[in-house]
UniProtKB/TrEMBL annotation:
Gene3D superfamilies: PAC-like subunit. One of its GO terms (cellular component) is proteasome complex. This is Proteasome assembly chaperone (PAC2) family protein. Coiled coil: none annotated. Pfam families: PAC2. It comes from Motilibacter rhizosphaerae. Keywords: Proteasome.
Length: 290
């Protein structure tokens, strides 16, 4: 079991989790949680014992040497931290780790036991998948919930996915089984630029967190990183006519599919969300590509 560090009583905490591996195209999801750890100055809580869940020939431990020459082994695992959100009436628990190699049910049950001990009221999982999405358009983020009432309340879809799943899908399903509300946000990473990092997809997931929790996240250099990433992919596509033609095909398909959404009502809803998050006291630049 996880031995947690000393932590004060948390206020209406929500758990935000992401895992390296199958659920993390372009490392966009774990990049989003890592960004939240930094900007919210998250305090470590504890880590899951890796011996029960990881194959160390697949996820190898790392050796490092400090300035005094002392060697340290860091084991692959999943780590909890917590933060008190400025200007918000709630706290957050963050979980960033690696998809386990074995005993997934026990792994997720251990996470949910910690969440229950901390008084977590909702589990939010972040994921990223490869998709036929053009890099020149806003990264799509899909939000789903396991509970129909929660889906209506947050204006999300009820998950209808059927097929292979990763640890994010298992965690969401088991959270529903124990009566803990669960939401999953997924970013669609262009499959032809799948190598990490994917700052534009990370930025899209952070905007999804803002919308979901009705708060503002300090974005730092991410908007500039996303613009530089897009510009770099533009240059690569310009050097290959077949890639450029393929990107134009994706753009046309994307733009045609979204024509019904380009209405005054949709634009008004987006602007209202923007103003709500960017009211007095909000900080951090916004990405103009939204």
């Amino acid at each position: 079991m996880i031995e947690l560090e000393s932590v004060p009583e948390l206020v209406d905490p929500v758990l935000i989790a992401a895992f390296e591996g199958w659920n993390d195209a372009g490392e966009a999801a774990t990049g989003a949680v890592e960004h939240l750890e930094q900007v919210w100055q998250a305090v470590p809580l504890g880590a899951i014992d890796p011996d029960d869940y990881y194959d160390f020939q697949v996820n190898r431990p790392m050796v490092s040497v400090d300035a005094e020459g002392e060697r340290t082994v860091t084991w692959p695992t999943s780590r909890f931290s917590w933060a008190r959100l400025p200007g918000s009436g709630r706290d957050v628990v963050l979980l960033r780790g690696i998809e386990p190699n074995m005993r997934w049910r026990a792994f997720t049950d251990e996470i949910l036991a910690v969440a229950a001990d901390l008084g977590v009221e909702m589990v939010v999982t972040l994921g990223a998948l490869l998709a036929d999405a053009p890099h020149t358009r806003p990264i799509p983020v899909t939000g789903t919930a396991t509970d129909q009432g929660l889906a209506r309340q947050l204006d999300l879809e009820v998950s209808r996915y059927e097929g292979p799943t990763g640890i994010v899908g298992v965690l969401q399903e088991r959270a529903g089984r124990v009566g803990m509300p669960s939401v999953s946000l997924w970013a669609a990473v262009p499959h032809y630029v799948a190598q990490p990092p994917s700052p534009k997809a990370t930025l899209a997931l952070l905007r999804g967190v803002e919308d979901l929790l009705d708060l503002s996240v300090e974005l730092g250099e991410l908007p500039e990183d996303a613009r530089a990433w897009e510009h770099g992919v533009d240059e690569l596509a310009a050097e290959d006519s077949e890639v450029a033609d393929y990107v134009r095909t994706l753009e046309e398909a994307k733009d045609t599919a979204e024509l019904p959404e380009a209405s005054g009502e949709a634009i008004a809803r987006e602007f209202e969300r923007y103003l709500r998050r960017r009211g007095p006291g909000a900080s951090g630049p916004r990405d103009p590509g939204r």
